[in-house]
Specification:
Shape: globular
Oligomer: single chain
Largest sheet: 2 strands, antiparallel
Number of helices: 5
Order of helices and strands: HHEEHHH
Distance between the termini: 17 Å
Number of domains: 1
Bound molecules: zinc ion
Strand content: 15-25%
Helix content: 40-55%
Structural class: alpha+beta
Radius of gyration: 11 Å
């Protein structure tokens, strides 16, 4: 299992995290009226938690775009 965000941005999350665990996170601002469930590595999870969803999505444009294009796989 790999981090959706790192994958979308072309980073190797397994390398960055020393193959540590991936957690599921819910995003509320991506889709109207429903949540997106994504897999995030520890680094991305901490970032999301500390800067908030809006800024996280802005910081990771590739990931946001991926979510928009592949809606079904994230709901
Ligand atoms: Zn990640």
């Amino acid at each position: 299992m790999s981090c959706d965000c790192c994958k979308a941005e072309g980073r190797n999350s397994e390398y960055l995290n020393g193959n540590k665990k991936i957690c599921r996170a819910k995003l509320f601002k991506v889709y109207v009226g429903r949540t997106a469930t994504v897999k995030l590595c520890r680094l991305c999870d901490i970032e999301l938690f500390s800067i908030g969803e809006s800024r996280f999505l802005k910081n990771h444009y590739g990931f946001t775009k991926e979510l928009a294009v592949n809606q079904k796989s994230f709901t």
